[in-house]
Design brief:
Elements lengths: L4 H12 L3 E2 H12 L3 H14 L2 E6 L2 E6 L3 H17 L3 H10 L5 H18 L1
Antiparallel strand pairs: 1-3, 2-3
Helix pairs in contact: 1-3, 2-3
Length: 123
């Protein structure tokens, strides 16, 4: 399932707290993104049509909740990025960022720690 950048912003609000009404989502996102209520409702409808969220009627309003786990979406998005840009390989991705000085010292330290954990798991 493809979720656009704008739809992902709505999903983040729902992953953070759910269920939410359309008005709740507008309150969380409207000011920060400069989105009108109609924009948020359009995004909610798109996500509903994709099956990414569910809607439950409560009185005169609907409450929305995610149907896709954030981790599952992250895995799909990151796998897609790796396939499209780096032939499915992580090392060229890291090399790209290191060549363009986009890795901080903290990033490098974390990568080292992760690699050590991978080595320990394989031993």
């Amino acid at each position: 399932m493809r979720i656009s950048e704008a739809e992902a912003v709505v999903m983040e609000a729902l992953w953070e707290s759910h269920p939410l009404s359309a008005e709740d989502v507008v309150a969380r996102l409207g000011d920060r993104n400069g989105w009108a209520e109609a924009t948020v409702k359009t995004l909610l409808n798109r996500l509903l049509n994709k099956g990414a969220i569910s809607a439950t009627k409560e009185g005169r309003r609907y409450l929305y909740a995610p149907q896709v786990a954030r981790e599952a979406w992250l895995l799909e998005e990151s796998s897609s990025l790796l396939e499209r840009l780096f032939d499915g390989r992580v090392a060229p991705l890291v090399a790209h960022f290191s060549q363009h000085r986009k890795l901080s010292r903290d990033d490098v330290a974390e990568l080292r720690r992760l690699l050590e954990e991978l080595d320990d798991d394989r031993s």
